[in-house]
Design a protein that fits this description.
Structural class of chain B: alpha+beta
Largest interface: A-B, 174 and 158 residues
Oligomer: heterodimer
Order of helices and strands of chain B: HHHEHHEHEEEEEEEEEHHEH
Number of strands of chain A: 25
Number of helices of chain A: 22
Distance between the termini of chain B: 49 Å
Distance between the termini of chain A: 150 Å
Number of strands of chain B: 12
Strand content of chain A: 15-25%
Number of helices of chain B: 9
Strand content of chain B: 15-25%
Largest sheet of chain B: 4 strands, antiparallel
Shape of chain A: elongated
Largest sheet of chain A: 7 strands, mixed
Helix content of chain A: 25-40%
Structural class of chain A: alpha+beta
Number of domains of chain B: 3
Strand order of the largest sheet of chain B: 1-2-6-5
Chain lengths: 684, 335
């Protein structure tokens, strides 16, 4: 298999069996062991039919055409071609009995007026009357091309040329450019022999029809041309039946392509029958070359046709239903090739060829790609157009209808500007196609890019006092383009609703991931949990881990005790001994001999007799108690007095805890003031 | 982050972010090539195409007819500020209130970066890898010529240097020396717009290949444009190479008299057989004939100094002035 971009050319791919009916006979002779024949076994016969397209090319067999169908281009120096998927297709039938190497198809290219295509007809009618193609047909109906003898002589390929115009190409199936979607990489190509010419007389495009025709049985009728020349006049005309039919009675129908003549068949018209017989029997071969017709007559008609047809084809292709589109498009392409002149035209014999496939294309303009490219005015956008090169005698171009445009070195164009207030001013505008590379906005503070939200934010003032509306216009057209497409608006709003915040969260996350310590701290969050749950869990867990840091210091479980006062004054022993009035030192001494409990039992505690009118307590203990009580009473008194003196001043005396009444010193109040006042007034 | 954990507002946001990382975003824009993206895929594609000026009215591109006369080619630098403004306008459709605008403002840088990335994928030739890296300057040309109308499917290639390889060498689009085509479109039947990812040194414009074509070289006889003759360059049937290097040495093509353009194939064959060094051994078959008639496309080179008649591209992409519109405005405000 060749590499991509390369291909191998083969001159033909001849199938071992041509299309037709075959009988496969199996014969077996049985012999005895000694060689005596027992006799043949009954012959086993199998019937095979090798099929091949005959009147109509299956659409899937047509891989590509050049020039592309319904295209327009300067195809003047290119030979039209059709690429077929099955490599053996051009050799699957015998164009004449026994001829296995000549292809049975030919690609002919005809201009308008050189021939007509029929409507759908039974296949028996699709060949020149009198000729019968034996064997099965692939389809019941097909279309045929009708041409005159002179068109065959002038345009059709010659018999010897047919093998040269077909070849097989082998390419890599993966090569999209060459293989074009073929399955095995072998393609059959049929080339035409005619360079489609542009109409130089009228400077008009010409529409051509390329037909893949079946030449079965009519090989002998193909061209036997005179000696060639090495140049040609592009203005000369091959043949135009319309020019002849103008002199015949029923030219109207022919030119208009109306169906009245097209539907008449067979021997309905005597002239038709005559022509058919002549053609079939070959009595009259190539009549004299047709009278040359003024090119203008032919080309005028063609030029009017071509543009409308191309549009019609597109229209049909767009509007027709899926199933019908192919047929209808091909049908419209035939416009200009309609009409049936063979019954009306008797100057020359006419021939019919079944058309397997056809397409039309338009040749627009002359001149080669090379010359056009060399003539280009090259420059940067904004350069002034070069002065037109005038041919000798050509009038100078008319002056521009409007004042010359205002260009600046920066690529700006001055344009009239109607402001919102209605003022007519001029503004600067520069499109996206600039003369100089420009800088883009760089990220500013915080890595953000400036973003305009309304077009007015992008209006700029320039030193000459005008406004530069380039970017504002860009903003506005961008907004309008977005608004013009409901799908875009919907996508924008959906995006806004769902995703505007997501990127910020992601950026935050990136920051978070950069802090390694945090990862450990926050690790362990259960995946898939809801956001709220996760957030609250984090909060609670964090709070529980270090509550003192989160809420407040905790209350200690046990408060430390206050230092006992008697510990400073000699300890518990001394307190007890003094309280009970015995000597701690004596008890300590005794404890050494008999133990603490026994020592206490033996120690005598002085007990006072309540009947004696003496102080119950005496000595140290009595002094202590008195002092202690006195201090207590004093403190209570002081507290009460303080409260009284700072209060509203209700009482003048208070009762101590022990019922001791005391006259209290206090601050004078309002009552005191009244009493004092009364005392002052009474002596008068 | 300190080891001492303080529950502050920052930390609460971090909790949110941590939680968000485990929540699956509802992104349909999971991209096999680029991974997750902020802008949804279909919107990204649309915005990137918008940035390549798809749908922008032609009068916005070329504001005056005199900027693009007939039969001319005009090179240009794409103004990124202009296309950014275009995208900003389109993005503005998605904002309804101030908080949207604030969000979009925060997001815009990411959006712009993603579109830089995406605009290189708008036009992807089959089987080639996408070029990566930050978006650089974009240049291109507008060609207004009958060549655009007459040769549908022109091939345009741009290189950042003169390659010095054979003319038929296939250089993939992913080759670093080759500038990727961001967009190539016929804006009108005779106007072609091409955008390159970079600034080219050499630009090739080539006749359409469209598979394989067969044809001749047509030329007028004398000064009469209607009287045409044709020639075929003879090739060696064994090697498929031209029999001689002289481009003018053609085998004349015979035509049928009275039939414009109809080639007498039989006689042409005889002429080809007689041509020296064709190596066809006495007869011509279909394959050999096809080989002789194969027509290779013409290539116009812009910027190659070694090619005669090629317009110099260096003069086209000349050094630049050091100011742009934004700076003009600053000058104005200062004065």
């Amino acid at each position: 298999m060749p590499a991509i971009g390369q291909f191998v050319l083969h001159s033909m791919a001849n199938p071992p069996l041509k299309a037709g009916e075959y009988t496969l006979a199996g014969q077996v002779d049985v012999n005895k062991a000694n060689g005596d024949s027992v006799g043949p076994v009954q012959t086993q016969e199998t019937h095979l039919r090798v099929t091949a397209p005959r009147y109509k090319l299956p659409p899937e067999q047509m891989l590509s055409t050049f020039p592309p169908a319904n295209s327009e281009g300067a195809y003047e120096s290119r030979l039209p071609q059709i690429v077929l998927k099955r490599r053996t297709l051009p050799w699957e039938r015998e164009p004449e009995p026994g001829n296995t190497t000549t292809p049975w198809v030919a690609l002919v290219v005809i201009a308008e007026g050189e021939g007509t295509l029929s409507g759908d007809k039974p296949v028996a009618e699709c060949v020149t009357p009198g000729l019968v193609l034996a064997g099965k047909s692939d389809v019941p109906t097909s279309i045929y091309l009708t041409v005159t003898r002179s068109v065959i002589d002038k345009v059709f390929p010659m018999r010897e040329e047919l093998p040269l115009l077909c070849h097989v190409r082998e390419v890599d199936v993966n090569d999209t450019e060459l293989a074009n979607g073929d399955d095995d990489g072998f393609l059959a190509t049929v080339i035409a022999n005619r360079l489609p010419q542009y109409d130089r007389t009228n400077n008009k495009p010409v529409r051509y029809l390329a037909c893949l025709i079946n030449v079965e049985g009519q090989l002998a009728e193909l061209a036997k041309p005179p000696l060639p020349t090495l140049n040609f006049l592009a203005t000369s005309v091959v043949f135009d039946y319309r020019a002849y039919s103008a002199t015949t009675g029923d030219s109207d129908h022919v030119v208009m392509g109306s169906s009245t003549t097209a539907t008449v068949h067979g021997a309905a018209l005597p002239r038709a029958a005559g022509a058919g017989v002549l053609a079939a029997t070959g009595i009259t071969k190539a009549a004299a070359a047709p009278v040359p017709v003024a090119g203008a007559a032919k080309a005028g008609g063609a030029a009017q046709q071509w543009s409308t047809t191309a549009k019609k084809v597109e229209h049909v292709a767009l509007t027709a239903s899926q199933d019908e589109a192919g047929r209808l498009v091909r049908d419209v392409m035939l416009e200009g090739y309609r009409g049936n002149f063979e019954y009306a035209f008797v100057l020359e014999p006419t021939y019919r060829f079944p058309v397997l496939a056809h397409w039309s294309f338009t040749v627009t303009g002359d001149g080669g790609f090379e010359s056009l490219m060399h003539g280009l005015d090259v420059g940067l956008l904004g350069t002034e157009p070069a002065a037109p090169k005038l041919k000798a005698g050509e009038p100078p171009p008319p002056p521009l209808a409007r004042p010359a445009a205002e260009f600046t070195e920066t690529g700006h164009v001055g344009l009239p500007h109607l402001t919102r207030r209605g003022d007519r001013v001029r503004a600067w505008y520069r499109g996206p196609l600039g003369t100089y590379p420009t800088t883009r906005d760089a990220p500013g503070e915080g890595g953000r890019l400036p973003l305009a939200h309304v077009s007015d934010q992008l209006r700029r003032s320039v030193p000459d006092g005008r406004e530069d509306l380039s970017l504002a216009a860009a903003f506005e057209i961008g907004r309008l383009l977005a608004l013009s497409q409901p799908a875009v608006v919907r996508a924008m709003l959906a995006w806004r609703a769902e995703q505007f915040g997501a990127e910020r969260a992601r950026q935050l996350l990136a920051v978070l991931n950069d802090a390694p310590a945090l990862g450990g701290v926050l690790k362990g969050a259960a995946a898939g949990a809801g956001l709220a749950e996760m957030l609250s869990r984090h909060l609670v867990l964090s709070a529980a881990a270090r509550p003192d840091k989160v809420f407040a210091p905790s209350r200690v479980l046990v408060d430390a005790g206050r230092p006992l006062p008697f510990a400073r004054e000699g300890g518990l022993d001394r307190l007890i001994s003094e309280g009970f009035g015995f000597s701690a030192a004596a008890v300590k001494k005794l404890r050494g001999g008999m133990g603490t409990v026994a020592a206490l039992q033996n120690t005598v505690v002085p007990v006072a007799d309540v009947s004696v009118l003496e102080p119950l307590l005496g000595g140290v203990a009595a002094d202590r108690m008195r002092a202690s009580l006195g201090a207590h009473v004093d403190s209570l008194t002081a507290d009460s007095l303080g409260r009284v003196s700072t209060g509203s001043g209700g009482g003048i005396s208070t009762t101590g805890p022990l019922g001791v009444r005391r006259k209290l010193e206090r601050e004078p109040d309002a009552l005191d003031a009244l009493i004092a006042g009364a005392l002052h007034r009474s002596p008068r | 982050m300190n080891a001492n954990l303080n529950l502050s507002a920052t930390m609460a946001m971090q909790f949110v972010a941590q939680s968000l990382s485990t929540v699956k975003f509802s992104t349909q824009e999971d991209d096999a090539e680029f991974g997750n993206r902020v802008v949804p895929r279909e919107l990204r594609g649309w915005l990137a195409r918008l940035r390549l000026l798809e749908g922008v009215p032609f009068s916005y591109l070329v504001a005056d007819e005199q900027l693009l006369p007939r039969e001319s080619i005009r090179f240009f630098y794409l103004d990124r500020a202009w296309t950014d403004a275009l995208v900003q306008g389109a993005l503005g459709v998605g904002t309804v209130n101030s908080s949207d605008r604030a969000e979009l403002n925060a997001l815009y840088r990411v959006v712009r970066d993603e579109l830089d990335e995406e605009e290189r994928r708008v036009r992807l030739p089959g089987g080639e890898t996408v070029q990566q890296g930050p978006a650089g300057p974009v240049s291109g040309f507008v060609l207004r010529s009958r060549a655009v109308a007459g040769w549908p499917g022109l091939h345009v290639r741009a290189y950042d240097r003169e390659l010095g390889v054979a003319d038929d060498a296939a250089i993939p689009e992913s080759d670093p020396r080759r500038l990727k085509l961001l967009r190539m479109e016929r804006l009108a039947p005779a106007v072609l717009l091409v955008l390159f990812d970079g600034i080219p040194a050499v630009v090739h414009i080539e006749e359409p290949r469209q598979g394989i074509q067969f044809g001749v070289r047509l030329s007028p006889v004398g000064g009469d444009p209607n009287n045409l003759q044709a020639g075929v360059k003879a090739r060696n049937a064994k090697t498929a190479l031209d029999t001689n290097a002289n481009a003018a040495d053609l085998v004349p093509v015979p035509f049928r008299p009275g039939s414009p353009g109809v080639i007498d194939i039989r006689k042409l064959n005889e002429a080809l057989l007689k041509a020296p060094n064709t190596n066809m051994e006495g007869s011509v078959d279909g394959a050999e004939f096809a080989l002789q008639m194969l027509r290779f496309p013409y290539r116009q080179v812009f910027g190659d100094p070694s090619v005669n008649g090629a317009p110099p591209l260096v003069n086209v992409f000349r050094p630049t002035l050091a100011y742009s519109v934004a700076k003009l405005a600053t000058l104005f405000s200062r004065s």
